[in-house]
Amino acid sequence: MLRRLYQWVIALAERPSATWALAGVSAAESSFFPVPPDIMLVPMCIARPDRAWWYAFICTVASVLGGLVGYAIGALLYETVGMFLIQLYGYGDKVDAFAKAYAEYGHWIILIKGLTPIPYKVVTITSGFAHYSLFWFVVLSIITRGARFFLVAGLLYWIGPPARVFIEERLGLVTFVFAVVVVGGFIAALYLF
Questions:
Q1: Which one, of 26, 22, 61, lies nearest residue 45 by Cα?
Q2: What pLDDT is stored for residue 23 in this prediction?
Q3: How far is CA 145 from the centre of its chain?
Q4: Which of 43, 66, 95, 192 is the most buried (most CB within 10 A)?
């Protein structure tokens, strides 16, 4: 089943609609969706290394736009939607401490957490809730999300075909490691808050 799913994503990467799907997942992940865009970015860069930079750009722009939705949820709808989402991801009791940390470390929080597998939606919603500077939120989101997606795309562009062979030969192991990193990011976020 895992191999069929992988082959489906690789085939999807060659369709014209793939870029739109990647943008949708990237935007949604920054505001409410639990699955990171890497699940599509990696196979798409492997299938089409000539478009890796374009895919990273699409991920960055969509992620920042989705981050603005997350920011708006935190700023305008925290008591309803924002609180529900934060509690859904298990961070409800830590938001106040996180919001207070923004006063002293706001720039660093956005930069560091935007690069890690820690759910970025928590950062975007809390940024709005803490009324962090919208200007700096956008600038830092562009830097951190761009660095993350361009790093992934760059590695896959330069490694190229050997990465595809490695992943296809060890698909179970690669999937397991990716799952550990994502789950580890959630767990780390629980303890780092």
A1: 22
A2: 94
A3: 8
A4: 66
| DSSP letter assigned to residue 30 | T
Residue 65, in any domain of the structure: yes
Residue 87, in any domain of the structure:
yes
Locate 82 and state its tokens.
């924002």
pLDDT in tens, 131-147: 889 999 999 999 999 99
pTM over 0.85: no
State how far the Cα of 4 lies from the Cα of 107, in Å rounded to an integer.
42
Domain count, the chain: 1
62 close to 120: Cβ distance less than 8 angstroms: no
Angle, helices 171-192/2-13, rounded to nearest 10 degrees: 90
Residues spanned by the domain of 63: 55-192
Backbone conformation region of residue 66, classed left if phi is above 0, alpha if psi is from -120 to 50, else beta: alpha
Residue 178: pLDDT band with limits 50, 70, 90: low
In a domain, 33, yes or no: no
- CB count within 10 Å of CB 181 equals 13
Tally DSSP H helices, then E strands, for the chain.
10, 0
pLDDT at 27 over 70: yes
Structure tokens at 58: 């699409």
